[in-house]
């Protein structure tokens, strides 16, 4: 589908053009497209249309459900390119609803966030291409060996995941001061039973940091062979401060008696708010970057893991058999090295073998007075002939 024409905006708590209980045409549940929705239902509403996150990029068009490319299943997995004819800006958007009505003389309704990003207003013209496949070619080698998951995308079969070359799983354990992921324990057992390395992460927010520390330690409390991580990312007005990030890291390490072993996850938030702080830069960086190559935050000279895709954006692959589309991470070293340093970050380099001794014949002349017995002891247990010393004729 390739069309152009006028547009308007829709969706979110402030869209009084839709009823409080109004749903969406082909998204029946938040789990169908979790990234498009607010964490909780806005007060006084019950429909999904008012729960859409206005800052996310989504679009409604008059889809033709009889078209094989525009069936419900295709609309849930494919994306559209939306380009402003006025500004020339373009962005990728998720299909979210059917509309607008023919009587509006418009071809699309888009999210408020997308309208702002495009730099346009209601009734400005846009061009829409669907389906649109954004191809990002990695300029740095991608070695997919770690997945990170949560209750949104748990694995169906970890044996199959392992067969795809994955060696480790980092799973959401907690968020804020009270939330615990209900799938964490069962997924942990299944992953470990398949022989995969396991890690736990805490999703940081702006709530009381002591409660967040207690929540993670009470629920996850990682074993010595398990990785632990603080996920510090943009969460709107509910993001953790740098001071509390440092406190969480240091206090959790102290309680686990594992100094310096916390992994720090983030992308733009670390770049914009990390300020090269040594508490961050002295620890392993798990970098979120969906471009063709990782760009390091201030103060870091390397990354430990690179999250190169969220299952939609970024270089390929976007999917792992046994899971489906998911967050996938690249590690720059060997799998053996990753396994060695998984929990602690420490890698014991093998010591070179000592050279093999070469047997040699050594002639030793000992001079002693006549009648004196000479005893020679040689290291290594060699046999030595002992003879009574004799004076050489002069």
Question: How would you portray this structure in words?
Answer:
The chain contains ten helices and 17 strands. It is an alpha/beta fold and 394 residues long. The strands form three sheets. It has an eight-stranded mixed β-barrel. It has a six-stranded mixed barrel with strand order 1-5-2-4-3-6. It is elongated. The N and C termini lie far apart (113 Å). The model is unreliable at 382-394 (pLDDT under 50).
Summary?
With 394 residues, this protein is α/β, with parallel strands linked by helices. It has helices at 48-51, 72-77, 112-118, 158-163, 184-193, 209-219, 242-256, 268-273, 278-281, 335-341; strands at 2-9, 58-61, 80-84, 90-98, 108-110, 125-129, 144-149, 168-175, 179-180, 197-203, 227-231, 263-266, 284-288, 305-309, 319-320, 324-325, 327-330.
Q: Report the structural category.
A: alpha/beta
Q: Rg, please?
A: 31 Å
Fraction of residues in helices?
10-25%
Overall pLDDT: 90
Q: What is the third-level CATH name, the topology of the largest domain?
A: TIM Barrel
Strand order of the largest sheet: 7-8-10-11-12-13-14-17
Point out poorly predicted stretches. 382-394
Shape: elongated
Number of domains: 2
Count of DSSP helices? 10
Main beta sheet, described? 8 strands, mixed, barrel
Helix and strand layout, with pairings?
Layout: E1 2-9, H1 48-51, E2 58-61, H2 72-77, E3 80-84, E4 90-98, E5 108-110, H3 112-118, E6 125-129, E7 144-149, H4 158-163, E8 168-175, E9 179-180, H5 184-193, E10 197-203, H6 209-219, E11 227-231, H7 242-256, E12 263-266, H8 268-273, H9 278-281, E13 284-288, E14 305-309, E15 319-320, E16 324-325, E17 327-330, H10 335-341
Parallel strand pairs: 1-5, 2-4, 7-8, 8-10, 10-11, 11-12, 12-13, 13-14
Antiparallel strand pairs: 1-6, 2-5, 3-4, 3-6, 7-17, 8-9, 14-17, 15-16
């Amino acid at each position: 589908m390739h069309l152009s024409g006028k547009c308007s905006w829709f969706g979110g708590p402030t869209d009084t053009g839709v009823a409080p209980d109004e749903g969406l045409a082909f998204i029946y549940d938040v789990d169908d497209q979790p990234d498009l929705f607010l964490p909780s239902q806005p007060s006084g509403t019950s429909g999904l249309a008012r729960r859409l996150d206005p800052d996310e990029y989504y679009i409604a068009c008059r889809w033709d459900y009889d078209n094989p490319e525009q069936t419900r299943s295709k609309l849930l997995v494919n994306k559209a390119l939306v380009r402003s004819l006025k500004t020339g800006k373009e962005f990728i958007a998720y299909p979210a609803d059917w509309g607008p009505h023919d009587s509006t003389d418009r071809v699309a309704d888009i999210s408020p966030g997308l309208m702002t990003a495009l730099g346009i207003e209601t009734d400005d013209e846009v061009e829409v291409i669907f389906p649109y496949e954004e191809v990002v070619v990695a300029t740095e080698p991608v070695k997919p060996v770690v997945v990170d998951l949560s209750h949104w995308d748990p694995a169906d079969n970890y044996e199959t995941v392992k067969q795809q070359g994955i060696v480790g799983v980092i799973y959401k354990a907690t968020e804020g001061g009270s939330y615990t992921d209900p799938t964490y324990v069962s997924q942990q057992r299944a992953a470990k039973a398949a022989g995969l390395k396991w890690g736990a992460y805490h999703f940081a927010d702006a709530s009381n940091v002591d409660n967040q520390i207690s929540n993670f330690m009470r629920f996850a409390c990682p074993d010595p062979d398990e990785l632990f991580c603080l996920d510090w990312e943009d969460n709107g007005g509910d993001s953790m401060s740098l001071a509390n990030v440092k406190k969480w890291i240091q206090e959790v390490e102290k309680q686990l008696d594992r100094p310096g072993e916390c992994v720090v996850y983030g992308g733009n938030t670390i770049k914009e708010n990390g300020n090269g702080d040594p508490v961050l830069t002295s620890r392993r960086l798990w970098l979120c970057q969906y471009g063709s190559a990782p760009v390091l935050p201030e103060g870091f000279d390397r990354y430990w893991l690179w999250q190169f895709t969220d299952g939609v954006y970024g270089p390929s692959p976007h999917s792992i058999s046994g899971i489906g589309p998911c967050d996938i991470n690249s590690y720059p070293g060997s799998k053996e090295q990753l396994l060695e340093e998984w929990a602690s970050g420490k890698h014991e380099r093998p010591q070179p073998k000592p050279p093999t001794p070469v047997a040699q014949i050594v002639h030793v002349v000992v001079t002693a007075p006549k009648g004196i017995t000479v005893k020679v002891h040689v290291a290594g247990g060699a046999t030595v002939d002992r003879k009574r010393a004799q004076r050489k004729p002069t």
